[in-house]
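Re: folding output
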Amino acid sequence: MKVWLIGAYGIVSTTAMAGAKAIEKGLIDKTGLVTTLPYFAPLDEMISFEFDFGGHEVRILPNAFVALKDHWDQNRHIDPDLIDKVKEELSRIVAKKGTALNCGSGIKGLGKLETLEEEGLSLRGIVNRISKDLKEFSDKETVVVNVASTEPVPKFNERYHSTVEGFEEMLDKDLREFATASMLYAYSAIKLGLPYANFTPSVGSSILALKKLAEENNVPHAGNDGKTGETLVKTTLAPMFAYRNLRVEGWMSYNILGDYDGKVLSARDNKESKIISKDKVLEKALGYAPFSITEIEFFPSLVDNKTAFDFVHFRGFLGKLMKFYFIWDAIDAIVASPLVLDISRLLLFAKKNGLGGVIKELSFFFKSPMDCEIVNTHEQFEMLKKWFNQLARA
């Protein structure tokens, strides 16, 4: 299958590419991939584990191998021998120039950028260029995944974000203040009939206009914000307190991270989207809203090693207050990149089964799943297995 990555030279994208090619060559096993668990074994009969990659990018680099090597120089997150063995494949992956429209002040931390809007293109012109790139790359087995940097919360407008006609009017009138890069990418993919996933907290395809477009074109899509680290633990542990009728009085989450993701999220406007995404899960998991603190801070020396310190204050029998602590310490690209491959395979599976619109059964992979109030990791996984098995037996 083919996967088009928005943010193709980022550490998650390049790690996904390297891992996929290493697996294809038999160099590593499939640890970390959900779709290779026995529950999903029939998937291999429909979608073999072979990938071609392309994508859009705003950073200036020659190819995906150079990007991967740049990340490796900072993080040492992959065996160096493995990098050399996928050099040929990744060197052939050259991203197309993308857009960073209304992506916030945080993207200044990414260094020198080249964007479509700098060419003087209108919104319609940007969409046409994105669509041209997608058409040249795609076939019937192509999925588009947004793994770009987090955008600020956009300026919503009822007229332009609620209907397909309104959205296209926004494009034609070049009303740039109401558009973001993630919207334009999502629109372009869905308009072309390509399944789309939003692995970021950005708006992507979650506005009503693009949900309607996906339904009209019978295109499967999913999101938002990949659930890979501290929130994964939170949505797995929070139900435990509910199951045992223990009252959570307060939950503090303090996240520190470096690398390009950390640089972007160090900007207040970009950080807001991420905190909103992380904050919503507690109330949904517990059924009430305890006092909560969620902080995300840039810590340069950590690079891609994301660390989270969580403190939970909970009340038990006889009203006794007690405490629970945990630390999550992981390489973000290592826990995130296999999910990009999983989501891509499952969205293509959904397309092959004639499904369109939001695939809420993929909520297992997201912090803020569209059209699904279930954030409990255990329930989400059972929902995913049930959905897959019903379609696989059909």
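--- second protein (sequence, then structure) ---
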Amino acid sequence: MISRPHSATGRRAYLNGTVLSPRQGLNGPGGLLIEDGWILAAGPDVTKDSIGSSAETRDCKDKIIIPGLIDLRVFTGEPGSEYRETLASASDAAAAGGVTTMIVMPNTNPVIDDAAMVDFVLRRARDTALVRVAPMAAISKGLAGEALAEVGLLKAAGAVAICDPTRSIGNANLLRRALTYAKDFNMLVCAHVEEPNLSGGVVNAGEMASRLGLAGNPAMAEVIALERDLRLVEMTGGRYHAAQISCAASVDVIARAKAKGLPVTCGVSIHHLTLNENDVGAYRTFFKLSPPLRSEDDRKALVAAVADGTIDVIVSSHDPQSEDTKRLPFAEAAFGAVGLDTMLSAALQLFHSNDIVLARLVEAMSQQPAAILGLESGRLAAGAPADFAVLDLNRSWKVEDSALRSRSKNSPFEHRTLEGRAVETVVAGRTVFAYAP
């Protein structure tokens, strides 16, 4: 289930743009016609002459109309840590970044591990959020990794998947049971892949960690956890999604699992596609992430895996932290970075550098996430929700605190100029963001 913002009424047409929705075969001149929160038509047949005289019009010359982004990994502080982020402030950041659906993580206080908490998030989002919101619920009660949460009740309450988002399930039998029960309820199991006994470091293990005098977190910690999980997937047949992978070896593991026909998908954060371990520089804590930023060779392998479809989705891994927990010595600082505002613009840098074609980026951030979760959005087609974004590929902007809508400001792109952004974001036919330079 997903929260449903109030729909706009009336008919509106976006004309003279480029319509890009790869799975609908749209990638060329055209427009979009919407009414009462739904798409009536999309593509080259939507012109000024075809829409009738009653429609309000928007000129999208030199702009690209894409399905709204669906972010599968968003951390918020509500409930329990609203000083970091609320559903309202996260949705404001999402709208500014072209994101029309946020999938929020269950590590709140209290944890989203029962039907009442799922219902709370959905009701709170309906009342306060600008974009659509859907919760993942916990795999284990209290995220303790000891007892399985009530998968069927969580699904009935509206959870779209189950996930312990910041640690691997150490108990293999618990994960086996989770995959088995989730299969019975057609529920996705989303996993954080990091072997806890190997992953006590704060940066990528290697020469850079040694130079900085910091404890290293080896890529093999991720690979070992992923290999074990996929053996359990093979055993149970449950649908499995690795929330984010960060190294070339994990790409190889995923590719082999897919070649076997296992029901496996995976994601990667935009930070791991655009940054590497060298960006940590002089102990810059905004680059302290979990998993850590890896080598440049790993980054290139991840980019290639997105381009060829081995990696299914790109996520923001939006994880807001306060100044009190980030402006500390590196080893003591909290993990995480904000990303909702910047995911799209950072991804467009991969397009501008000719690493990934635009259609594949759009697919990885909208249509593929929708397919994984069975959502009706993520496409530009008659009968689909009117959730979309209008892009200006040449609109540059500088990432400063004043430009970020998130309540927290811990962006690794701080002070950088990014080229390309959403200039309008529409959810259920209602404009929730319009860029005013």
